[in-house]
Fold this protein.
Amino acid sequence: MLEHGGRLRAASLRFGIPLADWLDLSTGIAPYGWSLPDIPPAAWTRLPEQDDGLESAACDYYGVDSLLPVAGSQAAIQALPRLRRNARVGLFAPAYAEHAAAWSREGHHLLTIGEVDIERELERLDVLLLVNPNNPTGRRFAPEQLLAWHARLAARGGWLLVDEAFIDCTPQHSLAAYSERPGLIVLRSFGKFFGLAGIRLGFVLAQQGLLERLAELLGPWTVSGPARAVATALLQDQAGQRVQRQRLLVDGERLGELLREHGLPPSGGCALFHWIACERAAGLHDFLAGHGILTRLFDNPTSLRFGLPADEPGWQRLELALQVFTKESA
Amino acid sequence: MLEHGGRLRAASLRFGIPLADWLDLSTGIAPYGWSLPDIPPAAWTRLPEQDDGLESAACDYYGVDSLLPVAGSQAAIQALPRLRRNARVGLFAPAYAEHAAAWSREGHHLLTIGEVDIERELERLDVLLLVNPNNPTGRRFAPEQLLAWHARLAARGGWLLVDEAFIDCTPQHSLAAYSERPGLIVLRSFGKFFGLAGIRLGFVLAQQGLLERLAELLGPWTVSGPARAVATALLQDQAGQRVQRQRLLVDGERLGELLREHGLPPSGGCALFHWIACERAAGLHDFLAGHGILTRLFDNPTSLRFGLPADEPGWQRLELALQVFTKESA
């Protein structure tokens, strides 16, 4: 299993700080969200059924005619490489590591490519895979650029696979509206924007035929009844979504500003996280962890990802720790 | 996708009876269970963590030292065939159809075998797969018999795969206690006995090495946070489990008796369902559906599975419908 953010129990053991005393900034998940709607008892007691309203609520939210709910976009990440054989897969890197692991596991040929190489490598690829905005770097790709790459790939039967896990605050950058084009696959995460990472729900947006093949691989009843009920309500709550989007955008700006003020200008980011690539990343990670603040450390390049604090005490705690770090390392 | 029980919406459309007016006996899921424990908000908002108590509660309940929680035993059914190549797989049939579909999908060679053939075929098999008690026939295999078959398979690197989805009322028949033996894999369903089919939770009991390979295929965070929290509490509720087991056993007997009284002696069954193989199955299915009672019809052999009514009005409604059927078909 790969290393991920959110492993608070492991951090609690390692740094000897009780679970309840941590400020967890190690994920890019919205730290606040909705009060949960009532869940009908039948959502727990009965097998989930497909025509319960989730699919249509999600189609409205994403602006598409068809999609496949999956038990977290992770489930799609694991399964999509099984729909091709012996593909040359270009991964824009550094990025969410589960993509590379999944394509390798299925025996595909992986090329890790930087941005400047995409144009040159594209003709040799069967699949181009990128995260937009990218995790952890925050790099954004313009839809026009992505569609141009997609057209070249699709002309040869190739795929453009775009993981839009962090795009809900900037839906104007999404390729959702184009996802019925052959060879374009868009992954969306439900839990990150809606602040419900435990729900295990994501969506695959693609041509109907591909969705059917994927559904066959994943089998029936992949998403729990309570998840379906909660998501159906939240996907319809447009007013709540506007509030959430605005709040995350403001907090994302605030986080970037806070880091800059303490001599740690983000190398990139989006509403849900900021990312700092610097030599001091490992030291800063351990310093913050010693103060009960968990961030996510990456190697290659050495870098740190900060998620958003949930509330004012969290912001103050982060600011105070950064002040001490700045002073001590001055 | 294969046909399954629990598809009340489809039945509602087909027979023109509103959703709320049905008595659904089409699954083998306990129709009553627990009042849900409080779910901590973090179960919804945070990524599920492995060391939250679910695994240890489940190990206690099943009497094992290691297991893997999965998003319904269906998730394991889909994935297990990917852990072998070109196996000769004997399926005891008729049985839950998803097993055959999953092994076929991965290119294995399937033999559907009846009970009398198992002894003869065993030497030619790499994998013997059966459901105990079997769904829908209710056939039970004695643990000693299964362990003897397992020993012969394991000696050649083969597997015995036992789906114990319906065994919780008769745990004395389970192979759970032996599941660390190489080549023995036991699947357990959480939702059926606990009456929570929407929760999507099951467990794989097997040798640690096999569990690790399976976990790698399935990826991280397969089970939702709320499911983990609810199941952890219910798996520890031994008093509640005793009440549930007793109630299901009594109701299972009552269902068998009711069918016998109306000239429909079950061909087999267990606490959670009874099964009638007879020429009249299709006619009886449609007659009951016309009265808003959904059962599960099988072909090959033509047969009908009845789950348990949830309450006294349900029992009376079923009895009345059977009385009318008996009179009309006399």
User: Anything to note?
Assistant: Chain A touches chain B through 53 residues (CB under 8 Å). The mean pLDDT of chain A is 95. Residues 55 and 64 of chain A are 10 Å apart (CA to CA). Chain A has 13 helices and 13 strands.
